[in-house]
Amino acid sequence: MTSELLTYIQLGFRHITDLKGADHILFLLALGAIYRPRDWRAVLWVASAFTIGHSITLALAVNGILLAPTPVIEFLIPVTIVATGIENVMARERARGSWRSRYRPVFAGVFGLVHGAGFANYLRSLFVERVAVPLFGFNVGIELGQLAVLVAAFALFAGVDAALATWRRAGAVASPVRLRAIAVSVLVTVVAARWAAERYPW
């Protein structure tokens, strides 16, 4: 049982960190783009909400309670990235706002429901009978993978912020964090919009 659990933890970790799952990586980048490393508590709340969302849908889908068409889910996943990227660009300095700290986890949790259905499409093909161990192990692996992606992203963000602070002109309106957040958000939004167009199911 331990070896089975570890196998599914590894599968979940690889699924979220593998470039084949780049849509999930892009979503995490978009989700974390507005934050600074010192905002790690807020990031944990948002990441936890995303985990709760995708865990609910993953459990329902794997147990056959929720059956979502794969083409629709594959289309909706990049749509969540586009929505997150646009939201990042449209609002200013919201990471510090109390109203934003309240709705951002809800935002992440709702979009996590969509991503969970995408995880289920992959996981469902890996087992037939026992559900509990694969489901738990896969969820743990995904969570560990998310943390690895976010740690790597924030290391990169810190480097970019430092570089922008060095090159920033005196009196510039936008902060280095804001400039980086916009740049990351625009990039992931463009990529995700292309994927959404390619996956349009209707």
Give structural notes.
The protein is an all-alpha fold. The protein has one domain (2-199). It contains 7 helices and no strands. It has helices at residues 2-17, 22-32, 40-62, 70-90, 98-123, 132-167, 176-199. α2 runs parallel beside α4 (70-90), α3 (40-62) runs parallel beside α5 (98-123) and α4 runs antiparallel to α5 (98-123). The protein is globular and about 60 Å long. The chain starts with a helix and ends with a helix. The model has no long low-confidence stretch (mean pLDDT 84).
Taking all Cα atoms into account, the compactness measure Rg is 18 Å
The number of domains: 1
Largest sheet entry = none
- Strand residues, percent: under 5%
End-to-end CA span? 43 Å
Mean residue pLDDT = 84
Task: Report the principal-axis shape.
Answer: globular
Class of secondary structure makeup: mainly alpha
- Following the backbone from N to C, one meets helices and strands in this order, namely HHHHHHH
Number of strands: 0
Q: Percent range for helical residues?
A: over 70%
In short:
The chain is an all-alpha fold and 202 residues long. The protein has seven helices and no strands.
Lay out the secondary structure.
Blueprint: H1 2-17, H2 22-32, H3 40-62, H4 70-90, H5 98-123, H6 132-167, H7 176-199
Which features characterize this protein?
202 residues; mainly alpha; 78% helix; 0% strand; globular
